[in-house]
């Protein structure tokens, strides 16, 4: 369960930023804003779902110690006018200005997701090895108990 959150949370913000830039490009190049309204409605819906997903990820304490979970504003960013739009990322409750956003963007994109993923997988493998060892010990104890019962019967 946590592994799914880990992969989704570490990848979705990049996809989210890409979608914002693509939709802004469409708005700039399109003559008809009304033609883009279905895309805007779908984007708003997906923004709300992503906002909720990041809130769920933040609630998982183990996950929030492994990766940086982005914080989105409650409302979706403005796509039609890029200059008036605020940053899609909020850090510690403060809306970043476009000048500050470049610094935040570098911090989010430079997180060691490969190293974190490797550490997570190593921890998972160690846990599985420990569980296997405990199961083997339990099986040995059961065999020993069965042998003792058979000796008592004789």
TrEMBL record:
Organism whose genome encodes this protein: Pichia membranifaciens NRRL Y-2026
Name the record gives this protein: AP180 N-terminal homology (ANTH) domain-containing protein
A GO-annotated cellular component: clathrin-coated vesicle
An individual GO BP term: endocytosis
Alphabetical UniProt keywords: Coiled coil
An example molecular function term from Gene Ontology annotations: phosphatidylinositol-3,4-bisphosphate binding
All residue ranges annotated as the AP180 N-terminal homology (ANTH) domain in the record: 10-82
Coiled coil: 124-152
Organismal lineage: Eukaryota, Fungi, Dikarya, Ascomycota, Saccharomycotina
Domain of life, per lineage: Eukaryota
PANTHER family with a match to the protein in the record: HUNTINGTIN INTERACTING PROTEIN 1 (PTHR10407)
Any Pfam family hit: ANTH
């Amino acid at each position: 369960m946590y592994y799914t959150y880990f992969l989704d949370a570490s990848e979705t913000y990049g996809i989210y930023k890409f979608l914002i830039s693509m939709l802004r490009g469409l708005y700039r190049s399109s003559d008809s804003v009304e033609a883009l309204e279905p895309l805007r409605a779908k984007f708003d819906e997906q923004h709300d779902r992503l906002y909720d997903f990041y809130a769920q990820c933040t609630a998982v304490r183990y996950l929030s110690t492994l990766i940086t979970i982005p914080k989105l504003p409650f409302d979706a960013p403005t796509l039609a006018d890029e200059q008036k739009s605020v940053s899609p990322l909020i850090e510690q409750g403060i809306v970043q200005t476009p000048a500050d956003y470049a610094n935040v963007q570098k911090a989010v994109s430079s997180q060691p997701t490969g190293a974190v993923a490797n550490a997570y997988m190593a921890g998972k493998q160690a846990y599985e090895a420990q569980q296997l060892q405990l199961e083997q010990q339990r099986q040995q104890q059961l065999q020993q108990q069965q042998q003792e019962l058979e000796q008592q019967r004789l």
